[in-house]
Design a protein that fits this description.
By secondary structure, the protein is an alpha/beta fold. The protein folds into two domains: 194 residues, Rossmann fold, CATH 3.40.50; 94 residues, 2-Layer Sandwich (Hypothetical Protein Yjia, Chain: A,domain 2), CATH 3.30.1220. Helix content is 28%, strand content 26%. It is built from ten helices and 14 strands. The protein has an eight-stranded mixed beta sheet, with helices on both faces. A six-stranded mixed beta sheet has the order 9-10-14-11-12-13. Helix 7 links the parallel strand 7 and strand 8. It catalyses: GTP + H2O = GDP + phosphate + H(+). It comes from Piscinibacter sakaiensis (Ideonella sakaiensis). InterPro entries: CobW-likC_sf, CobW-like_C, CobW/HypB/UreG_nucleotide-bd, P-loop_NTPase, Zinc-reg_GTPase_activator. One of its GO terms (molecular function) is hydrolase activity. This is Putative metal chaperone.
């Protein structure tokens, strides 16, 4: 059986997750979607698209999708769904897990890698995060859960952008990109987003693509070339047209390491292993495309918290400039320790 793609939908209370979900479920895309709701609020999918039977934990929606609420834990629910799909008692093509507004998506994502049965049945596609344009700033200021959700994302949607002025939206997008430069940010009004931005994003694929928002790299001395480690506090507002954007000193931050030199494989492996041991809980997402000494192929690694995976990627093309690029997103990570440590792993 082909792996079942799974998407984690997260975002703070009132950010419009249910609206987006409803839109995805009712759109005629010919896919049958199983929605797993991990919500305690009253904002769950409402009755107009449900055929309700309170005895049954799994509810059929009238468009052929199914919906279930997590009673035990996620692992059990996913295993149960997969079992029903295998037996042919339940038809669905993919799963969307809607987390509670207060949830940390980390452990949800880890379920897909830590549990053998789940890992052999499902493919975690991506984490989508909604940020409410009207209350986003305030929520990001007040709640670390909201900041974590942004840090984890593969795709960020700013919802309710029609309720605030353009400058507010701009400032919020700018702020979010500093926390997470690897996730594209799009505005979404009333859940109106193309499905291509929602499904099959391959955010957890070990592929050789490492997109980092170019604004983030140009903003100032973010990309570290060699020993050029200046911190970005914009003390003099240098290279930054919007000094006021940085009024927020968020604990979820990101930084990029780049080098044209090759890494020494054993040194790098030891260093990354040690870093993950020490800082794993604070490391939200990290990914790198690496130039390894003695290898004619790119090495790709990525991780969530303490779980790190790596793989051999494609060969460096003839004439392609070899180099390494890594992005780390985490909570109060010691940037200097990481950058200097990586520097010392270069051959």
């Amino acid at each position: 059986m082909a792996l079942i793609p799974a998407t984690i939908l997260t975002g703070f209370l009132g950010s419009g997750k249910t609206t987006l979900l409803k839109r995805v479920l009712t759109e005629a895309h010919g896919q049958k979607i199983a929605v797993v709701e991990n919500e305690f609020g009253d904002e769950s999918i409402d009755n107009e698209i449900l055929v309700r039977d309170d005895q049954e934990q799994i509810i059929q929606l009238n468009n052929g999708c199914v919906c279930c609420t997590i009673r035990e834990d996620l692992r059990t629910t996913l295993a149960e769904l997969a079992e029903k799909k295998r037996k042919g008692t339940l038809a669905f093509d993919r799963v969307v897990i809607e987390t509670t507004g207060l949830a940390d998506p980390g452990p949800v994502a880890q379920t897909f890698f830590m549990d053998d049965e789940i890992a052999e049945t499902y493919l975690l596609d991506s984490i989508l995060t909604l940020v409410d344009a009207k209350h986003g700033d305030q929520q990001l200021d007040a709640r670390q859960e909201a900041r974590r959700q942004v840090g984890f994302a593969d795709q960020i949607f700013v919802s309710k952008a029609d309720l605030v002025d353009g400058a507010t939206v701009e400032a919020l997008i700018h702020r979010v990109k500093h926390m997470n430069p690897r996730a594209p940010v799009r505005t979404a009004n009333f859940g109106d987003v193309p499905l291509a931005d929602v499904f099959d994003l391959r955010g957890f694929n070990l592929n050789a693509k490492l997109d980092i928002d170019p604004d983030f790299l140009n903003d100032d001395g973010h990309g570290h070339h060699g020993h050029d480690h200046h911190d970005h506090d914009h003390a003099h507002g240098e290279h930054c047209d919007h000094p006021h954007h940085h009024a927020h000193d968020d604990d979820v931050k990101s930084f990029v390491f780049r080098s044209d030199k090759a890494f020494h494989p054993a040194k790098l492996e030891d260093f990354l292993g040690a870093i993950v041991q020490v800082y794993g809980p604070k490391m939200l997402r990290y990914k790198g495309v690496l130039n390894m000494k003695g290898s004619d192929r790119k090495v790709i690694f990525q991780g969530v918290h303490q779980l790190m995976g790596s793989d051999l990627g494609p060969k460096w093309a003839p004439g392609e400039k070899k180099g390494s690029k890594l992005v780390f997103i985490g909570i109060d990570l010691p940037k200097d320790v990481l950058l200097q440590g990586l520097e010392q792993c270069l051959a």
